[in-house]
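To illustrate the input format used throughout this study, we show a single complete record. The first block contains the structure-token representation of the backbone; no residue identities are included at this stage. The design step must infer an amino acid for every position from geometry alone.
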């Protein structure tokens, strides 16, 4: 699947400091700008286990035009992994991640397991840095989520030993407003 189209992006400095858009309600600020595991958050919000539906894991060129700029920090050859995250059959997020081939083989042995679980099985130290926040859209997202966009998206890096391990982009279903409250995604898009 192609990466979704960006309609609006927060300034990088605002994302790195956790300021984000002021209009974003507190629960959504935690979900989008916090450094916690989104799969764990989805489980806590819904009370249901998170199922990972692997869409694909394919070789990826280093100069992918829609990839976050931080992907250039990864050592080629690269793979791009795409998944849907479901709770009780309801698609709540779509994610894509970029990996060095060797790191992917080492860390993603069970390709249908959430990345966070794969990376922390040995209780290894990790650092997550949220680098980007955006509103995105794509017909295929609207079709699978069953709701109109735009959709909140974020991307971040995992670091181990000071080195970028992977870059991950997540897109969240507006269905999360059931647990987190409404956001002003349409208004923010119109005002930008």
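Output of the design step:
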């Amino acid at each position: 699947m192609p990466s979704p189209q960006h309609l609006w992006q927060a300034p990088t400095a605002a994302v790195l400091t956790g300021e984000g858009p002021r209009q974003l309600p507190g629960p959504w600020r935690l979900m989008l700008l916090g450094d916690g595991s989104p799969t764990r958050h989805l489980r806590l919000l819904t009370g249901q286990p998170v199922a990972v539906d692997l869409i694909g894991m394919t070789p990826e060129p280093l100069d992918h035009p829609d990839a976050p700029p931080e992907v250039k920090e990864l050592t080629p050859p690269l793979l791009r992994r795409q998944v849907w995250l479901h709770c009780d059959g309801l698609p709540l997020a779509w994610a894509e991640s970029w990996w060095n081939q060797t790191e992917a083989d080492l860390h993603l042995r069970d390709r249908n397991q959430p990345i966070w679980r794969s990376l922390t099985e040995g209780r290894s130290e990790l650092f997550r840095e949220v680098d980007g926040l955006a509103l995105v859209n794509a017909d295929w997202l609207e079709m699978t989520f069953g709701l109109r966009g735009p959709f909140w998206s974020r991307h971040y890096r995992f670091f181990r030993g000071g080195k970028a391990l992977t870059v991950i982009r997540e897109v969240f279903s507006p269905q999360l407003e059931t647990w987190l409250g409404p956001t002003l995604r349409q208004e923010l898009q119109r005002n930008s």
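Structural context for interpreting the output: The two ends are 27 Å apart (CA to CA). Helices lie at 12-16, 26-33, 38-46, 101-107, 115-120, 139-145, 177-180, 185-191.
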